[in-house]
Amino acid sequence: MGGVLVGFSIIGFVILVGYLIGRFEVAGPGAQRVLNRVAFFVATPALLFTVLSHADARVLFSSFLLTSLCSVVVGAGLYLVVSRLFFHTPVAETVLGAASSGYVNANNIGLPVASYVLGSARFVAPILLLQLLVLAPLILAVLDVSTSGRMSVRAILTQPLRNPMIIASAAGLLVSLSGARLPAPVLAPLELLGGAAIPMVLLAFGMSLHGERLLKAGPARTRVVVAAVIKVAVVPLVAYLFGRFVFALDAAELFGVVTISALPTAQNIYNFAARYDRGVAATRDTVLVTTLASVPALLLIAALLAPSR
């Protein structure tokens, strides 16, 4: 249980610092936007490259990953159906809501939870690669096209060439597949820049909480509740059903995949929303609500599924 509490205490503290920065105007006006842009264009690409350049790409073809993929698809698909029937939001907001329903915080919460609760960081690698190489490019492509006002095959096909996070992810994967070892003078500055990514995103997220009333009454609140319920309750249940009855995972892998699926919505989704200035408040609230709700959810999963040692 300690890993769950450690992971959430880390993220909570940094978000609190961000809130205090915004509350007392330490960084001045416009600081939140600057942090988001630096994280999006510089720090996060550096982090993605360094993480993926060391990753084992073979996990992309595992049953563990297929289970995670099924749970994400079902969760996002359910949100899309509900949105189509009841919300009728624009494409960008709909995509961000669907992403909030399935895209997990695999870095700053997932890694500590995997290490301290599951016993190995390997459990978080499949979903991390899935999100970086498949889901993030797809989300960003839709956001790019929907916010630019143009819908063309050329825009979709060339989108990866214009997004620094996708370029960095692809480059990191190529390094991993080639087996090359980058020299320290090349890797060290990228690791230094990448180390700033998570703090920047968390600080910007905390700053966004100041002066805003969370869960304001209205349609946005309903969207937040729906996305949060799907993320914290439905997606882990789907992961359990697929993991146990379809892919026949062993006890340790089943515990791992359900735990990872119950992680809260990633701050990266908020970063995407802030970058494109679409659905920012709803996405921010979903991240916060799922972060709080995931604590009891993860403790319950550990109590029910953790294999005896």
List the helices and strands and how they pair.
Elements: H1 2-23, H2 31-53, H3 63-87, H4 91-100, H5 110-118, H6 125-148, H7 153-158, H8 164-178, H9 184-194, H10 197-209, H11 219-246, H12 251-261, H13 267-276, H14 280-305
Question: How would you describe the overall organization of this protein?
Answer:
With 309 residues, the protein is mainly alpha-helical. It has one domain: Na+/H+ antiporter like fold (Up-down Bundle), CATH 1.20.1530. Helices cover 75% and strands 0% of the residues. The radius of gyration is 19 Å and the shape is globular. The two termini are 14 Å apart.
Structural class computed from helices and strand pairing: mainly alpha
Radius of gyration: 19 Å
Give the count of helical stretches: 14
Task: Could you tell me the CATH topology label.
Answer: Na+/H+ antiporter like fold
Largest sheet: none
Order of helices and strands: HHHHHHHHHHHHHH
Tell the overall outline.
globular
CATH architecture: Up-down Bundle
Q: Whole-number average pLDDT? A: 85
* Text of the CATH class: Mainly Alpha
- Point out poorly predicted stretches: none
- The number of distinct structural domains comes to 1
In terms of DSSP E residues, the strand content is: under 5%
The beta-strand count equals 0
Write a compact overview of the structure shown.
With 309 residues, the chain is mostly helical. It is built from 14 helices and no strands.
